## 1
Amino acid sequence: GESVGLHLPTLSVQEGDNSIINCAYSNSASDYFIWYKQESGKGPQFIIDIRSNMDKRQGQRVTVLLNKTVKHLSLQIAATQPGDSAVYFCAENRGNSDNTGKLIFGQGTTLQVKP
Amino acid sequence: ETGVTQTPRHLVMGMTNKKSLKCEQHLGHNAMYWYKQSAKKPLELMFVYSLEERVENNSVPSRFSPECPNSSHLFLHLHTLQPEDSALYLCASSRSGAYTQYFGPGTRLTVL
C-alpha cells in the first residue's frame, strides 16, 4: 500500500550535535524522495531530494541517505542549530502520467534543538 | 520566500458561508496543487492542475471547488463547509516534468 512513515514523532538534540531523522516507505516502485522542513506558521520548505538510482546526496549541512533494500530514508543534519527546530517531512513521489508530481507524505518528525 | 503566495493567511467562516482561497506562484511553473494539512495527519493531496487542466481530484467532497484560470493562479472555492474541514490549506507549484514542489505559507481555515 501507499504509506510513508517516520520512526519518531519527536527528536530532541543538543545544539551543535548531529541530528538523524528517519523515514520508512513501503512502495518499492517509488523513484524519487524529498525532505521538507516546516517551521511554525509557514509552509513546507524544500531541503533536499534524491532519486532512487542514488544512495547518498549531500547539501549544505544536510545529507540524505537512501537504502532501497530496507526501504529506508534518512536526513542527517550536521552541527544542529536552533534555527533547525521545525517539523521535518519525508515524501515519496509517485508521479502522474502527465508528469505532475504526486507526493505521499509521512507524518513528520518534530526536531527540538536544546541550547 | 515569495515564490508562492496565499491569501488570506487566516480565515474564519460559518458553515453556511461561501469563501475563496487564492494562490499565486511567481516561479514560472505550470503545475499547481492544493493540499490539506490537519493536526496529527500527513499532508493530503486534494487537487492537481497541469497547464490549467485538472488532472487529479483525490476524492474531495464537492463543497471544495478548485479553479485554475491560468498557470500562475489557483483558487479553492469553499461552500457549506463542516467543522472537520478546519485545517491548514497549502498550495504548491512545480514545473511540468519536475517532481519538486514549492509550497506557499498556507491559509489557516477555521469553520465554526
Note: Residues 85 and 112 of chain A are 5 Å apart (CA to CA).
## 2
Amino acid sequence: KQEVTQIPAALSVPEGENLVLNCSFTDSAIYNLQWFRQDPGKGLTSLLLIQSSQREQTSGRLNASLDKSSGRSTLYIAASQPGDSATYLCAGSRTGANNLFFGTGTRLTVIP
Amino acid sequence: DAGVIQSPRHEVTEMGQEVTLRCKPISGHNSLFWYRQTMMRGLELLIYFNNNVPIDDSGMPEDRFSAKMPNASFSTLKIQPSEPRDSAVYFCASAQGAAYEQYFGPGTRLTVT
C-alpha cells in the first residue's frame, strides 16, 4: 500500500515569509499528484494538479513540483499571508488507478 | 456550477440505525469517489465509480457499508447498521475522468452514539 509522508506536520511562520512543504511517497510510481488545502471543519480545495507528463505547476503564489524518480513533491508558497493558514494535503494516484492516496497533512499557521 | 453537493452536512444517530449519505457530483463529471476522514487514519478512499459503475470498492470497511450510483447525478453511501467507530467525516468527490483533478464536496460529519 502506498504510504504518504508530509513534513513538517505543523509549521508556523511570520507573514511575508516564503515556505516549502514536503511530501514523499513510498512507491515512486506516481501517475498524478494533487495538492489540497483544508480549512477547519471544511472540505478540501484543490490547489494544483501535476499530471503524468508534467513535473511542475504554478498558480499565483503557489508552485508545486514532482520528482518521480524519488517519489517526492514540494509545495512552495511565496510571500505567505494569514489567509494561507490551513492544513495542506498532498495526494497521489498510481498508474492505472484512480484512487488518491493522501498524506497526513501539514498544518500551516501564518502569523500577522 | 454549484460544485459537489452533499447532504446532510451533519448526522447524529444511534448505534444500530441505518444512515444514508447523499452526493450530487459536478455536472459532466463521470468519476465519483467516496472518502472517509478520521483523526487516526486520515483520508481514505472507500469506493469510486466511473460512468456510474463501481470500479474499486476495496476500501469499503465491511458489509455494513454499501454505495450506489443509479445515475450520473446522484450517489448514496449507506451504513447499516451503524456503529460508533463509523463516526467520521465522509467526503464525496468528482472528476471529469480517471486522470483529472478531483473536486471535493463539503463533507458529511457523522456521529454515531
Note: Chain B has a mean pLDDT of 93.
